[in-house]
Design goal:
The chain is of the alpha/beta class. The protein is built from 3 helices and 7 strands. It binds zinc ion (ZN). The site of zinc ion (ZN) has 5 residues, from strand 4.
Length: 138
């Protein structure tokens, strides 16, 4: 995966989620096909922390089941950094267990939110290109 496709609407939804949860970090799962996101699942941050997040394994299991039933796959995990830059923390890197997922970080550190995507493999962080486009209205 070198890039990830997310509509502008979905990006805005992630930013809204991050703002609603600040000053705590928020997290969630993005599902879709291949590298294209079509569904956003907001998850609880069980740590209720301004500097880290952890998903409830039970909730995560249910969401992964729902994703499978929709015929989709997990494309990315997102979380917010209310007061730091949009780059994985040492803990984010240590806890990145999925080689084939994108890790999206929403930073609210500056007035203008910053959203960036990364792949994290064996401790190596590489930035992924985010391709955005407005979804066509049917
Ligand atoms: Zn983080």
């Amino acid at each position: 995966m070198k890039s990830i496709k997310i509509s502008r609407q979905h990006i805005d939804r992630l930013i809204q989620h991050a703002r609603a949860g600040a000053p705590e970090e928020v997290c969630g799962i993005l599902a879709g096909t291949d590298d294209e996101v079509s569904e956003v699942f907001e998850m609880a941050n069980t740590e209720h922390s301004p500097v880290s997040y952890f998903m409830d394994p039970k909730e995560q299991f249910q969401v992964m089941k729902a994703i499978r039933e929709m015929g989709l796959r997990m494309v990315a995990i997102y979380h917010s950094h209310p007061a730091s830059e949009a780059f994985p923390s040492a803990k984010d890197v240590r806890l990145a267990f999925y080689d084939d997922l994108a890790y999206i970080i929403i930073s609210l550190m500056n007035d203008e939110p910053v959203v960036r995507a990364f792949s994290i493999k064996e401790g190596r962080v590489e930035e992924l290109k985010i391709v955005t486009a407005w979804m066509e209205c049917p």
